[in-house]
Design goal:
Blueprint (H helix, E strand, L loop, with lengths): L3 H13 L3 H14 L4 H13 L3 H14 L4 H13 L3 H14 L4 H13 L3 H14 L4 H13 L3 H14 L4 H13 L3 H14 L5 H12 L3 H14 L4 H13 L6 H13 L7 H4 L6 H26 L12 E7 L6 H13 L4 E7 L7 H9 L2 E4 L5 H10 L4 E4 L9 H5 L6 E3 L14 E4 L15 E4 L30 E4 L8 H13 L4 E5 L5 H11 L7 E4 L4 H7 L5 E3 L8 H8 L4 E2 L10 H9 L9 H12 L2 H17 L5 H20 L9
Parallel strand pairs: 1-2, 1-4, 2-3, 4-5, 5-6, 6-7, 8-9, 8-11, 9-10, 11-12
Helix pairs in contact: 1-2, 1-3, 2-3, 3-4, 3-5, 4-5, 5-6, 5-7, 6-7, 7-8, 7-9, 8-9, 9-10, 9-11, 10-11, 11-12, 12-13, 13-14, 14-15, 15-16, 19-20, 19-30, 23-28
């Protein structure tokens, strides 16, 4: 019979060699033979944990602890397994006991950092990791964890420094490169971050995380074709990396690369139905999915955010006491677009008018200052301007909470640059989804969504997690102070001297084969007409030309407009006879721009919020006849207008007349109605009432 030490060594070697199954098979009889040996129980627990038998692993390690209550190794192992099981409080308890026994033990300190982070104590986690690096300066894992903790606390420079220290210890180490990429991305140094992830991809070619992160950084740099290739590589390495699937499908739409698009879209929708995590809800809005599917996607995403921040929210335990009912409402707006951005274009005139209502206005800007005229107007409109671009999600939540707001409006939702983790910490008593994200957030921390009865009819309410607060006008404001200049000649814009100009200056990802065919059907029926599109680059324009020719339309009838600064872009609409909307994600800000510039917008209201914005604009402008019942009616009306110059002229005159006299662009009236709606939300909270639909 082998002696005990030899058997324990063999089991330890099996664990180290990745044979947890054999290790567990040998440890079980050894424990039966040696019931008082703590090491046999400890090794058995480790092997069981590696096999995924977590409850049995905890039982074995607790038995080991009963036999050796002062064993630092047992306490650390037990804490790790408890942490993996989601019991962060008891994991912390075990590590604090180990810390008393071994105050400078690097593994204890590193594990303590993990447990503290899991309980929401980010500063305590950072301190524990730092102590681990001091106790063992060569502890690579502690340096990587320290970098991640610094990033979570919003200290990007310290995070980068810790990551670079880890790389100095182990040049080319994948985890150190991964966290360095995150640090550089947090500092918006996207090219450098992409380079770090590229090095990681070379160091760990089988790790799908690296091409996925490279894809995200390439997207930030507008290198969409290379980004799509990176996400495709990630998906090939890990077919279950659903985040890469979602990005790939969205990029294929961006590039107008429709090869196998139906199959990819169906795969994406199936993963949403299965509750797969990691799928970006915003990109999913462009899929031909129902409102119920969008809700499912949003709820899954919100649940993942809840898991990340729930412990910190519990630790903060903020109390949002009702404000003084006799004082002006304290209202906050948080956005990544309070600069030269479409969001600012929509809200600036409204916020200038809102300042005159009984509201104290706080604007929280999460993007770096750009000094634009729009940003200067927003700063002047605000009673308090908060530049929070350099803070973490937790720091943003603290800044919001410190202002004791009555209502907080989220203008980002799940759009690019959003910080939903901050709102998930519940910094304000009433939190509202409004404007930028055209759908439900599926989030328990969002109480209301502001809409109107066209964009969000009663029939869609069941597919929104929020209570709906309906405005008595269009939910979307606009800058009604803009001048529409005289454009260059048609020829200078690349347009023919004569012929009907149909326009669709939406982003390219809003186009799909069905929408494109609807537009081409109009061109086929109106000789000499052209379709004016926004150039997308990366080969997208040429793909559309090839597709048009394949469908029997001369590719020269597609005219691509370059992206221009706003005033020049707005002036171009004077040459457009009719704007043709897209589906299932329609024109939003673009539709408002077209109408303001005098160009009528033709649309088909769909079955989701994102497909109904143009319909709401038309309805509230008094031109509901431009909301076609279906694709056939859309084509028929566009063709009829194409053949009737008098009808086109009368329609443009109607747009101009209604714009001047109707309520769509009346921002003072909008501000009054909006302030009244906010007061009702705050009033319900002050009365101790739960959020409810507000009609």
């Amino acid at each position: 019979m082998h002696d005990l030490a030899t058997l324990l060594d063999r089991i330890a070697e099996l664990i180290a060699g990745g044979r947890a199954d054999l290790a567990a098979a040998q440890a079980a009889p050894l424990r039966a033979r040696e019931p008082r040996d703590a090491e046999a129980a400890r090794l058995h627990g480790i092997a069981l944990f590696q096999l995924g038998r977590v409850a049995e692993a905890i039982a074995a390690l607790e038995a080991a602890l009963a036999l050796a209550p002062r064993s630092v190794d047992v306490l650390c192992n037990l804490a790790s397994v408890r942490l993996a099981a989601g019991d962060s409080a008891r994991a912390l308890e075990a590590l604090e006991t180990a810390l008393l026994l071994a105050p400078a033990h690097p593994a204890v300190l590193n594990g303590l950092g993990n447990a503290r982070r899991a309980t929401g104590d980010l500063a305590g986690a950072r301190d524990a990791y730092a102590a681990a690096t001091q106790a063992q300066p060569g502890h690579l894992g502690a340096w990587c964890n320290l970098a991640a903790a610094e990033l979570a606390l919003g200290d990007h420079a310290a995070g980068e420094a810790a990551a670079r220290h880890a790389l100095a210890l182990a040049p080319g180490h994948p985890e150190a490169l991964f966290v360095l990429g995150h640090a550089l991305a947090a500092e918006r140094r996207h090219a450098e971050a992409e380079a770090a992830y590229a090095m990681g991809e070379c160091a760990a070619p089988a790790d799908a995380r690296f091409p996925y992160q490279r894809g995200l950084m390439l997207e930030e740099q507008k290198q969409f074709a290379r980004a799509a290739e990176a996400h495709a590589r990630a998906l090939a390495l890990d077919p279950q990396l659903d985040a890469a699937l979602g990005q790939l499908v969205f990029l294929r739409r961006q590039l107008c690369d429709w090869r196998d698009l139906d199959a990819l879209s169906a795969r994406l929708r199936a993963r949403v139905a299965a509750g797969a995590p990691g799928l970006a809800p915003f990109g999913f809005l462009a899929e031909p999915a129902s409102a119920a599917e969008q809700l499912r996607c949003a709820r899954t995403h919100a649940a993942s955010i809840e898991r990340r921040v729930g412990a910190l929210r519990a630790r903060n335990a903020w109390r949002n006491a009702p404000g003084d009912p006799h004082a002006p409402l304290r209202v906050g707006f948080v956005a990544n677009g309070f600069g030269h951005h479409p969001t600012a274009l929509l809200v600036v005139a409204f916020l200038e008018a809102l300042r005159d209502e009984a509201v104290t206005l706080h604007l929280f800007s999460t993007a770096p200052a750009d000094g634009s005229v729009l940003q200067q107007r927003l700063q002047a409109a605000a009673h308090a301007w908060h530049d929070v671009h350099a803070v973490s999600s937790a720091g943003l939540a603290e800044a919001i909470h410190a202002e004791r707001l009555d209502v907080l409006l989220d203008l980002d939702g799940y759009c690019a640059g959003a910080m939903p983790e901050a709102l998930a910490l519940r910094p304000a008593p009433v939190q509202v989804n409004w404007l930028a994200y055209p759908g439900t957030l599926g989030a328990p921390w969002i109480d209301y969504v502001i809409a109107d009865r066209i964009v969000l009819p009663e029939s869609l309410h069941a597919q929104f997690s929020e209570a709906v607060a309906w405005l008595p006008r269009c939910f979307q404001p606009s800058d009604s102070t803009r001048d529409v200049a005289t454009p260059p000649s048609r020829e200078d814009c690349g347009l023919p001297a004569t012929g009907v100009v149909y326009a669709c200056l939406n982003n390219s990802w809003k186009l799909d084969p069905a929408t494109f065919e609807r537009m081409l059907a109009v061109l086929r029926a109106v000789p000499g007409s052209v379709l004016w599109l926004l150039s997308a680059g990366d080969g997208a324009d040429e793909r559309l030309r090839v597709e048009a020719a394949r469908r029997g339309v001369d590719a020269r009838r597609l005219v691509f407009a370059p992206k221009l600064e706003h005033a020049a872009y707005l002036a171009r609409y004077r040459h457009a006879d009719l704007f043709l909307d897209t589906a299932p994600y329609g024109a939003h800000t673009t539709a408002s721009d077209a109408l303001w510039a005098g160009c009528p917008v033709l649309t088909v209201p769909g079955a989701t919020f994102a497909s109904r914005v143009a319909a709401s604009l038309n309805h509230h402008l008094g031109l509901a006849q431009l909301n076609a019942a279906d694709d056939a009616a859309f084509v028929a009306l566009a063709v009829r207008l194409g053949h009737d110059p008098d009808a086109r002229r009368a329609l443009r005159e109607a747009v101009a007349s209604h714009r001047a006299t109707g309520g769509l662009f009346d921002m003072r009236g909008y501000a009054r109605d909006f302030a009244a709606l906010l007061a009702r939300m705050a009033g319900r909270h002050r009365a101790g009432l739960a959020p409810a639909p507000l009609h």
